[in-house]
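FW: tagging you since you asked about this chain on Friday. Here's the raw sequence from the shared folder, copied in full. Didn't touch anything.
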Amino acid sequence: MIVYCDTSAVMKVYATEQYSDWTEQHVKAAKPCIVSQITWVEMCAALSLKARTHKMVHTEVAEAMVRLRTEWPYYSQIAVDDAIITAAGELAQTFGLRAYDSLQLASAQRIFSQAGAAMAFCCFDRQLNLAASALGMAVLIP
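HL: got it, structure written out here
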């Protein structure tokens, strides 16, 4: 199965959180696991925030970043282009989503338009999952 992961799902692979094991199993089993290129920026920012807020110690963040840098090329990455930006703007208005969430959803929607039922959406944001479901995507929920 093709799995599209937003940043909340990818984070669970690199930081110990609730459902980390479950998420990592789905990411490893995915054929392929697809992410938006913006996930890189979101992961760097989120890991940095975890260090600043003491949710992870600096050595854990550094190890997570080394691992992410090493594994990043193995994720299938979808580029953000003009069509995705336009679709994201429309999705933001339709579903009341934040900017990067809208870009994640528009990226997933493009993959879904090509793969259909062969794709599942993996995310840990309730509003984003509801929007993906409304668009017809299968949503992976632990």
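FW: The chain has one domain: 2-140.
HL: agreed, and The chain has a mean pLDDT of 97.
FW: great, closing this out.
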